[in-house]
Amino acid sequence: MADGPYKYIRDGDGRVSRVIRVGTRKSQLARIQTDSVVEKLKELHPDVNFEIVAMSTTGDKILDTALSKIGEKSLFTKELENALEKNEVDLVVHSLKDLPTVLPVGFTIGAVLKRENPHDAVVLHPKNKGKRLDSLANKSVIGTSSLRRAAQLKKRFPHLEFKDIRGNLNTRLKKLDEKDDFSAIILAAAGLRRMGWENRISQILGPEDCMYAVGQGALAVEVRARDRDILEMVSILNDSDTVLSCIAERAFLRHLEGGCSVPVAVYTEVKNSQVYLTGAVYSLDGSDSLKETMQTSISSDNQTEEQEKVDEKVQRVGITALKVSEAAQDAAVKLGVDLGNLLLSKGAKEILTVARQLNDAR
């Protein structure tokens, strides 16, 4: 057994079983996401009791400021990680895109689950039913708090205007429907689908319109790095293609030193044992941009031998994926770094520095 004060309960028949406490944010979407992960764990470990512990994070409390202005990397994760550190919870479920590419010492992402649709979606004000972004009236206001979405869409749809909108999914939809401030808002398709609100999606934005955020659409399980048994327990949830895509994306972002406060976007495909990673950086208004695609082979030859050798002490951009080929993970990291270097050699640093300065001055 790993170290740490574990919690046990005894049932009516005197059987003792371990309790695993799972930390989550309080929002409805976070709860749905956490419940879906716990359901999977229960199926795989019917003898373990899972207890969900919900808490509010800084990002949930500061609702009147654009995320990119707060400048805090661990906005939605810090309180959850504090609970993990104090042994108040044993694992935490996050949206992977909320997790910085460098985690605090002592933590690791032990599982990245199969990715939901990673693209962004357009949700229209009821009066615009049936329209698309290109058919909205001139100067229509689109709500998004993401610099990445705004930069790409300003360039693609110059007739539209973009304004910040904050709050969880429920709050944003309410702001859209009950006021006349916005003609449409842009949200991640994954969240809308998990909430059962697919009927509100009027358009899915493909990569030609808007590439997505690093890790978007994937759920991650964060654990204490020293808890070998918990790492082992959650590792069964790893989806190999998603793990490799997200490792490549996170390595790309980390190499560019990007974060919430700069517009960096990706688009990844895994097919025929190849990972294709497209990465881009943008100025705030989208007028200046760099975009490139690279690929790497993640062939599964010798995978059985390699699987035995995955070292739980090795993190790749914050991820410890025990059940995924180590060679493939290394190839994914290299892909992200190589693509980052290619963009840096073409002037990405300058674009991002200006974007960061302009955003700070807003």
TrEMBL record:
EC code(s) of this entry: 2.5.1.61
A single GO BP: heme biosynthetic process
Domain Porphobilinogen deaminase C-terminal: start-end pairs: 244-303
UniProt xrefs under NCBIfam families: hemC (TIGR00212)
SUPFAM superfamilies the record matches: Periplasmic binding protein-like II, Porphobilinogen deaminase (hydroxymethylbilane synthase), C-terminal domain
Summary of subunit composition and partner proteins: Monomer.
Pathway noted in the entry: Porphyrin-containing compound metabolism; protoporphyrin-IX biosynthesis; coproporphyrinogen-III from 5-aminolevulinate: step 2/4
Domain Porphobilinogen deaminase N-terminal positions: 20-231
GO CC, one annotated term: cytosol
InterPro entries: HemC (IPR000860), Porphobilin_deaminase_cofac_BS (IPR022419), Porphobilin_deaminase_N (IPR022417), Porphobilinogen_deaminase_C (IPR022418), Porphobilinogen_deaminase_C_sf (IPR036803)
A molecular-function term among this protein's GO annotations: hydroxymethylbilane synthase activity
Superkingdom as given in the UniProt entry: Eukaryota
PROSITE patterns per record: PORPHOBILINOGEN_DEAM
Subcellular location: Cytoplasm, Cytosol
Role played: As part of the heme biosynthetic pathway, catalyzes the sequential polymerization of four molecules of porphobilinogen to form hydroxymethylbilane, also known as preuroporphyrinogen. Catalysis begins with the assembly of the dipyrromethane cofactor by the apoenzyme from two molecules of porphobilinogen or from preuroporphyrinogen. The covalently linked cofactor acts as a primer, around which the tetrapyrrole product is assembled. In the last step of catalysis, the product, preuroporphyrinogen, is released, leaving the cofactor bound to the holodeaminase intact.
Gene3D superfamilies named in the record: Periplasmic binding protein-like II (3.40.190.10), Porphobilinogen deaminase, C-terminal domain (3.30.160.40)
Keyword set, alphabetical order: Acetylation, Cytoplasm, Phosphoprotein, Porphyrin biosynthesis, Transferase
Protein name as annotated: Porphobilinogen deaminase
Source organism (scientific name): Culter alburnus
